[in-house]
Write a structure and sequence with these properties.
CATH topology of the largest domain in chain A: Cytidine Deaminase, domain 2
Helix content of chain A: 25-40%
Low-confidence stretches of chain A: 323-329
Distance between the termini of chain B: 46 Å
Radius of gyration of chain A: 21 Å
Strand order of the largest sheet of chain A: 1-8-15-12-11-9-10
Structural class of chain A: alpha+beta
CATH architecture of the largest domain in chain A: 3-Layer(aba) Sandwich
Helix content of chain B: 10-25%
Low-confidence stretches of chain B: 95-162, 177-190
Structural class of chain B: alpha+beta
CATH superfamily of the largest domain in chain A: Ubiquitin-like modifier-activating enzyme ATG7 N-terminal domain
Oligomer: heterodimer
Distance between the termini of chain A: 72 Å
Number of domains of chain B: 1
Shape of chain A: globular
Largest sheet of chain A: 7 strands, mixed
Largest interface: A-B, 74 and 68 residues
Largest sheet of chain B: 6 strands, antiparallel
Order of helices and strands of chain A: EEHEEHEHHHEEEHHEEEHEEEEEEHH
Strand order of the largest sheet of chain B: 1-2-5-6-8-7
Number of strands of chain B: 8
Strand content of chain A: 25-35%
Number of helices of chain B: 6
CATH class of the largest domain in chain A: Alpha Beta
Mean pLDDT of chain B: 72
Mean pLDDT of chain A: 90
Chain lengths: 329, 311
C-alpha cells in the first residue's frame, strides 16, 4: 500500500550451510564396507532442514543417519516438521587423488541440468522439494576415519541480478486483519502432516480469505486478489532471504512468465508462527532469457552453489574401534 | 578414570539386559519414569515445543521397551552464543546461586533464569515457566570477518579458482555466511556454536538423559571435550561425561543421570508442598528447566505458558 518511491536494489541471498552428523559418516562407512566396497556409483541421499526458528541463527542443511535410508533400505523417516527433506546425490571416491581431480564444473553442469529439467518439465511444481536439490563429493578414508567432502547447492542464475524494493517484517506488510488469516492459514499448512514438509507454497489472498496452496495450484489461483510465493527460509538475517528462493524465482519466471512477485520468507520463533519474524520482499527480475524449451539442454542456465571450500572431519577419536580399544586399555 | 567409566557402563548394560524396565509409576515417590511415562512426557514436549521431535535412530540400536518411532527426542541447531564461564561470572556478580540439594556437595543449581536470559535474583526455588525474555540480551552484529574453513590437505585450490560457480564468486550471495556474535559491551567477539540436544531414556536410572552434540561456527562437529566450555563449571567433568550415545554413533557429551531422580523428587516435593499436584506429562519441562543449570548458555526451547500441575 506504500506509494512512496522506493529504490530498487540487488537482492542477495544467504548461502546454505551444510552440517553432517557423526551418525551419517558412520552409516556411510558401514555402507562402503558392507555393500559398496569400491563401487563408485552415485548414492541417493536426503538432506534435512527446517525454517529458521531462532532470530539469531540460520538453519543448516543437515545429513543424518536417515539421509542414507534409501541406500540402506531402512525406513524413510516419517514426515516431521523439523526434518524437511531435500533430495541429494553423493559422489563418493576411493582415493584422495580421485577426490581432488573430480571435474567439479562438469558435475555442477550435470546437476544444474537436473534442476533445470525439473523446473521446465513441471515436476518441480508437483514436488517442490526438488528445487532444493544438492550434491556432495566425498572421500571416506576408513583406515584413518577421516572424511573429506564438498557440498554444492545449485541455484540457477538470471543473467541480470534480481532486484528488490523492500525487505520488511510480514507483520508490517499485511494489515492486522490479513495477518490473522495469514497466520492461521500458514499454521494449518505447517501443522498438517501432509504439507508440513512442503517447503515451497503459494499464499493466496482473496475475498474468501487466505489459503496456503501447493505450487501446482498456480492456475487455480488466477484472477484472485493477490498471490505471494512462499518458502521455508533457513536464513535468520533481517535483510536477506536464504538460498532456496533462487530456484523458486526461476520457476516463476520460466513457468509462469512472472517479472515481479512478492515473496514470503517463512521463519518461525522457537517453532511457532510469528509474522514479526517472517519477511516479505518484492522481487523484480528479467524474463528468463526467452529459454523455455526443456529439450534444449544446451540452454541450461549458469548456476552457483559450491560451498567456499572442501571440508574434512577426523572422527578417529570418536569412531575408530582400534583407537577406542587403545584408549580404554 | 576411562577404565572405571567403561567398567560402570558394562555393568550398567548388563543390569539393563537382565532386568525388565520399570512398569509401575513412581514419578512422585522417587522422581523416576516408566518408559510409557517417558513417551507420554515426550509427546507433550513435542506438542508444546515444536522444535523438539521424536526420532528412531539406528534401527540396530532400538530399545524394545520404547515405540519404534519414539526412541529418543531431539532438537537440532540450537544456538549457544556465549561460553558458560563468561556467563557464570556475570551470574555471580548478579547475586549468585542457590544449591537445591547441597548436603553432599553434589547438589544441582536450581535458580538460574532461562538459559542465556536475563540474570535475575530468583527467590523462588521452583523454576518459573515463562518465556525467556529476549529483549535484554546483547545485540548481535554481523561482522565482516568471513570464516573460511581452509582445508589443509586438498592440495591446490588455484585450479578451482577459475570456477564461477562457487557461492563466493556469485555477486548475489551474501558474503558473510557465518554469524559472528558480537557483544558491544566488552568488545568480546565469540563465534556461534550450535548444539543438537537429545533426550534418551536411561533404563538403569529410570530417568531421561540429556546428550549434547556440538558444532562449531562453521557447523563442523565439535570435539566432545570442547563441550565442557559450554557447561557450568561446577558440573564440567563431574556430572558431564563423554560416552557412547545409545541411539547414535560415536562419543557424545552427556549429563550423567545418577543424580536426576533425587533432584526431580525434590522438585516434585516442593510443588506438592505448595498444593500443586504435578502431572507426569509435565516431567520433561521441569527436567529441562533443571538441566538449564548445567548448560546455562545453550538456548534450547522448554518454555511454554502453562501452570504446573492440575491446579
Amino acid at each position: 500500500s506504500a506509494t512512496a518511491p522506493t529504490q530498487s536494489r540487488i537482492l542477495k541471498f544467504v548461502p546454505w550451510q551444510s552440517s553432517v552428523t557423526a551418525d551419517f559418516w558412520h552409516g556411510l562407512a558401514n555402507l562402503k564396507l558392507d555393500v559398496l566396497r569400491l563401487d563408485r556409483r552415485p548414492l541417493q541421499i536426503q538432506g534435512f532442514f527446517a525454517p529458521c526458528s531462532h532470530p539469531r541463527i540460520s538453519k543448516p542443511l543437515q545429513l543424518t543417519y536417515e539421509s542414507l535410508s534409501l541406500e540402506l533400505g531402512t525406513e524413510s523417516p516419517a514426515s516431521d516438521r523439523n526434518r524437511c527433506p531435500a533430495p541429494g546425490t553423493l559422489y563418493n571416491t576411493n582415493t584422495s587423488d580421485e577426490f581432488n581431480s573430480i571435474d567439479r564444473d562438469a558435475l555442477m553442469n550435470e546437476e544444474t541440468a537436473k534442476v533445470w529439467d525439473d523446473i521446465c518439465s513441471g515436476r518441480a511444481e508437483e514436488d517442490s522439494n526438488l528445487l532444493n536439490r544438492f550434491f556432495v563429493i566425498c572421500y571416506a578414508d576408513l583406515k584413518e576415519w577421516r572424511f573429506k567432502y564438498w557440498f554444492s547447492f545449485p541455484a540457477l542464475q538470471f543473467t541480470q541480478a534480481v532486484k528488490h524494493t523492500m525487505f520488511q517484517p510480514a507483520s508490517d506488510y499485511f494489515t492486522a486483519e490479513e495477518s490473522l488469516r495469514v497466520v492461521s492459514a500458514c499454521t494449518a499448512w505447517r501443522t498438517s502432516p501432509l504439507t508440513t514438509c512442503l517447503s515451497f507454497f503459494l499464499l493466496h489472498l482473496s475475498c474468501d480469505g487466505v489459503t496456503v496452496r501447493p505450487l501446482s495450484d498456480w492456475e487455480k489461483c488466477q484472477g484472485s486478489f493477490q498471490i505471494l510465493l512462499g518458502f521455508y527460509d533457513p536464513s535468520h538475517l533481517p535483510t536477506n532471504p536464504g538460498w532456496p528462493v533462487r530456484n523458486l524465482l526461476v520457476l516463476a519466471a520460466v513457468r509462469w512468465g512472472l517479472k515481479n512477485v512478492d515473496i514470503l520468507c517463512w521463519r518461525e520463533l522457537q517453532g511457532r508462527t510469528d509474522l514479526r519474524h517472517c519477511f516479505v520482499t518484492s522481487a523484480t527480475f528479467e524474463e528468463f532469457g526467452g529459454i523455455v524449451l526443456p529439450e534444449n539442454t544446451n540452454a541450461v542456465p549458469k548456476a552457483a552453489g559450491w560451498e567456499p571450500s572442501a571440508r574434512s572431519v577426523d572422527l578417529s577419536s570418536l569412531m575408530n574401534p582400534d583407537m577406542l580399544a587403545k584408549s580404554a586399555a | 578414570m576411562a577404565f572405571k567409566q567403561r567398567l560402570h557402563e558394562g555393568m550398567k548394560s548388563f543390569v539393563e539386559r537382565i532386568t525388565s524396565p520399570r512398569t509401575v509409576s513412581a514419578f512422585v515417590e522417587k522422581g523416576v519414569l516408566t518408559p510409557a511415562e517417558f513417551v507420554q512426557a515426550g509427546d507433550n514436549l513435542v506438542a508444546k515445543c515444536p522444535t523438539w521431535s521424536w526420532e528412531s535412530g539406528d534401527p540396530s540400536k532400538q530399545k524394545g521397551h520404547l515405540p519404534k518411532d519414539k526412541q529418543f527426542l531431539i532438537t537440532r541447531n540450537v544456538p549457544c552464543l556465549r561460553r558458560a564461564a563468561a556467563f557464570e561470572e556475570e551470574y555471580a556478580a548478579a547475586g549468585g546461586e542457590v544449591l537445591l540439594d547441597g548436603e553432599d556437595g553434589e547438589g544441582w543449581l536450581a535458580t538460574h533464569g532461562a538459559p542465556g536470559g536475563p540474570l535475575k535474583d530468583d527467590d523462588d526455588t521452583v523454576p518459573s515457566m515463562d518465556m525467556a525474555d529476549t529483549e535484554d540480551r546483547p545485540q548481535i552484529l554481523i561482522s565482516d570477518d568471513t570464516y573460511v574453513n581452509h582445508e589443509d590437505d586438498v592440495p591446490d585450490m588455484s585450479d578451482f579458482d577459475s570456477s564461477d560457480n562457487l557461492v563466493t564468486r556469485d555477486e548475489t550471495a551474501v558474503h558473510a555466511p557465518y554469524l559472528i556474535a558480537h557483544e558491544p559491551d566488552d568488545n568480546n567477539i565469540l563465534r556461534t556454536r550450535t548444539y543438537d540436544i537429545s533426550i534418551t531414556y536411561d533404563q538403569y536410572f529410570q530417568v531421561p538423559r540429556v546428550w549434547l552434540t556440538g558444532y562449531d561456527e562453521s557447523r563442523m562437529l565439535l570435539d566432545p571435550e570442547l563441550v565442557f566450555e559450554d557447561v557450568s563449571q561446577d558440573h564440567a567433568r563431574q556430572t558431564v561425561t563423554i560416552e557412547d550415545h545409545p541411539h547414535m554413533a560415536g562419543k557424545h557429551a552427556s549429563v550423567h543421570p545418577c543424580r536426576h531422580a533425587p533432584v526431580m523428587k525434590k522438585i516434585i516435593a516442593i510443588l506438592l508442598s505448595r498444593g500443586v499436584e504435578p502431572e507426569v506429562d509435565k516431567y520433561l519441562f521441569l527436567f529441562l528447566k533443571f538441566m538449564a543449570s548445567v548448560i546455562p548458555t545453550i538456548e534450547y526451547d522448554y518454555t511454554m505458558e502453562f501452570t504446573v500441575g492440575a491446579s
